[in-house]
Amino acid sequence: MDTLNYELLVRILIAHFLSDFIFQRKDWALEKDVIGIRSRFFWLHIAIHAITLTVLVWDLGLWPVILWVTMGHLIIDAIKSRIPNSDKWVFIGDQLSHILVIVTVWLIFSQQWELFCRSVDVWMNNQKLWWLVLTYLLITKPASVLIDKVTQKWSKEMANNGNQSGLENAGNWIGVMERFLIITFIITANISAIGFLLAAKSVFRFGDLQEASAHKKTEYIIIGTLLSFSIAIIIGLIYKFVM
Description:
Blueprint: H1 7-22, H2 26-35, H3 40-57, H4 63-81, H5 88-110, H6 113-124, H7 127-138, H8 141-150, H9 152-160, H10 170-187, H11 192-206, H12 215-242
Helix pairs in contact: 1-3, 1-5, 2-3, 3-4, 4-5, 10-11, 10-12
């Protein structure tokens, strides 16, 4: 076998996401977070996970896979339930832990450790992959800082005029996501989609700026938007040129 066999892995992952999100009600999760393993919903969730996994694996000869994945799920959920004030980072860590357990069990019982290590070695020595990582990295925080520096004068003027409004850091997140999409469109040769993205943003961001008093804010948003688009397009074209 020259390539990894992902069939079992995909089935286990489907079982995990079904049991963790589709088959689990919100009130169950809330009670689990409060009283942990003392909640009847905690054990009901684990039972649903085991049953879903058994049905999707559909091979009793793989009972150790079902057992170890279920036990891993139980332990991780029990630990998570003891962490107060769960936030997004706890959620992300919880899901990454589940996936790590699943991948580890899959590699052990499918006997693909050696092949997996060879595949990782190939990925780590893939020049195109590292250029891709650098490209997406540049359009996140570095691009946001550059835009903030360029528009700093106007940003202060907007704040002095009492025109600063909106959700905290929402503008930065919008910028990162739009640059992410632009880079993806360029890499996948869907240049025309950039025009659609610009038109869609214009509708949402400029639709409420009709009054004359909003003239400065309109100009400020247009400058930031065009600067964000320009940075993403230039970085994307450089990546295409290098590759």
